[in-house]
Design a protein that fits this description.
single chain; 4-stranded antiparallel beta sheet; 20 strands; 0% helix; globular
Length: 228
Amino acid sequence: TALEIIFQESCPESAEGVQAISWSADSTLVMVRQGNTAHLYAPMLSPDWRARVSEGSAGLTHSNFGPDSRTIVTVTEFNLHLTVWNIDSHATHVITKPKDSATISWSPCGKILATATRSECKDYVCMFDVADWAEVRTFPAATLDLSSLSFSRDGGHLVVADTQLRYLLLIYTIEGDLLFRYQAYEHALGIRSLAWSPDGSFLCVGDYCQSARLINTLSWKVVCEYAH
């Protein structure tokens, strides 16, 4: 079949232009972020349907869909707060003092949202039940300035990377217990990227020293190292 345009929309004029585009997990909604507003379209369901979310004067630096395709997460400028929007019910929930968009992670089942917050110069990991947005658990992270947070593939662990100014990888259980601490070296820039294998058996850690280390998630041991 030939490629053809099935939907076209002229976005509102904006000095910033289109900054990000994302699809919902069920491929029914498209979100276009421009400046302080995220515009929503449903080209496959109802081409005339439109919606938008905005943080107003607080600005907007991040917007994305939740795994249920009907939830949107936005983060304001200066990380003042994170807002969870429900498209169907129009309900909102605000989480104050989030770190940034790299410290937001959904559990694989989509029932828990984890995010890092900072209070009194200390990092915390907070977990929320998406059914009622009750805070189910909060625990301190042993980091100087937490830079990334993600669930493991099975949802049983949380992977935390410290500031990029030092190498420190922490693995927590979802109960908040520190299971594994790994520091490949000291006195140099740290972790640059993390990637799970599709089956969750391995975690690959890339650093600023041009190396990638493969960690076995059963034993939590480094099984090999690749230098570039």
